[in-house]
Amino acid sequence: MIFILLHRPSNYVYVTNLFDYFILDNEGYCDIATLEILDNYQVYEINFICSSINRHNSLARSASYLAENLGIMHDDNKALFCRCAKLDSENLELLLADLSNSIFLAAPSSQIYLFLSPEERKSLFKADGSYNNALEKAKKSLPGFFTYDTSSVAEIVKFFRIARDMDFDEKVKTDHYGNHYDHMLHDINQAIAGGKKVIPQLSELSQKIHAPDKDLIDSIIFKANDGTEIYPEDLSHGELKKLSIYAWLKANQIKDSIVLMDEIENGFHPDWQFQIVKELEEWEPSNQYILATHSYELCTALTPSHVKELEPKLLSTPK
After folding, report:
1. Domain region containing 230
2. Which of 16, 61, 195, 302 is most buried by a 10 A CB count?
3. Sorting pLDDT into bands at 50, 70 and 90, what band is 242?
């Protein structure tokens, strides 16, 4: 929910899909969330409120309410508002737009995402793959949404293409190729355990015409230090998952951002669950990572002041 509230501009259908979970009080209001945002050493307290439209008959009759709050989205029954005591609506809109580029969500693809429509959520129980299609559609509409698809090398290939892009740009500007590709290759291999190496591969067409164009990298292989090729069955689920998370952070240049991560520990050895906290900080220390976890080992990597235990607060379920 935090990801959707802070992600603007986004496909607003994902906001209205959450409306069924906003339980209004007798006055027709619901305080959804209060978030403190630190921006340029200034703290802004942002309140998100849901209001019944029927209570006001129309949004037009809520002029005084709209004057004090930023209207985000509405359907026939409910409207979502946002307010901040320190900002008027125009500047609050600008702040939310900036936050949209700095909010990211990573979670298992088997998770149920409340911002999907009821039909899309129910499709998880169908055998036609429609739930996965809904997730792919959401990822295209919501930049910053990532699922732990360890079988895909798309993020890793993107990682290397970006590095080559940067080196080519440097060649154009200075007449000398940069070393971003070499640095990224070194860094990604440092992220792999057990002395394994990842090597990007050019497409067959690129090899035939001897044109190592950046867009023609289409696969990767793994090799041991002695040069022996490592096959997919020789890599653990945890290794592939950790590599995909690293590549996702680097390929999308996620810096100075809020990164929400759910159940990051799935597939990790207990030692890796402990280590992932330190690794996230090393991979990009400028980010704020908010992790939801069931892992005792992950929590022991933090001080008690960093851990927030949440009690269930759902009083009723939507019909």
Report:
1. 153-234
2. 16
3. confident
